């Protein structure tokens, strides 16, 4: 049971033990342990999305763009069965994540590219080239 202290209002407040904390959490504030850490950065010509997905192969990662929504996901199912003298052990492992990002206006979704190296998935999202404003005089006829 967690240690308890009393608030001034008389209602108890529970303190989490320091040993319950994960010092290097790899999940979001909702406690979902399957979401990889994400970095998003930009420069003048591109946006970059980087996900830490160590242990995955690039064929286990899916990247989709639909209606200006970039979705990066993975679903892995492993099943292992060991038969030994008089018993069978069957183990299942299932791992999945899905992260979605709204593409900002002015991006070129047709030219999105990705690469995977050393457990880091890097997605490059080019900005559309701004067309130079043309200036001309219009004659009245």
Tag the structure with descriptive keywords:
9 strands, single chain, disordered N terminus, 48% strand, 141 residues, Immunoglobulin-like, 3-stranded antiparallel sheet, mainly beta
Quick structural overview:
The protein is mainly beta and 141 residues long. Helix content is 0%, strand content 48%. It has strands at residues 4-6, 12-14, 38-42, 46-52, 61-66, 69-84, 87-102, 113-117, 120-126.
- Name the beta content range: over 45%
Query: How confident overall, as mean pLDDT?
Result: 77
- CATH class category of one domain: Mainly Beta
Query: What are the secondary-structure elements, in order, as H or E?
Result: EEEEEEEEE
Strand order of the largest sheet: 3-4-9-8
Largest sheet, described in full? Answer: 4 strands, antiparallel
Subunit organisation of the chains: single chain
Number of strands: 9
Radius of gyration: 25 Å
The second-level CATH architecture of one domain is Sandwich
SSE topology:
Elements (H helix, E strand, L loop, with lengths): L3 E3 L5 E3 L23 E5 L3 E7 L8 E6 L2 E16 L2 E16 L10 E5 L2 E7 L15
Antiparallel strand pairs: 1-2, 3-4, 4-9, 5-6, 6-7, 8-9
Explain the overall architecture.
This protein has 141 residues and is mainly β. Helices cover 0% and strands 48% of the residues. It has no helices and nine strands. It has strands at residues 4-6, 12-14, 38-42, 46-52, 61-66, 69-84, 87-102, 113-117, 120-126.
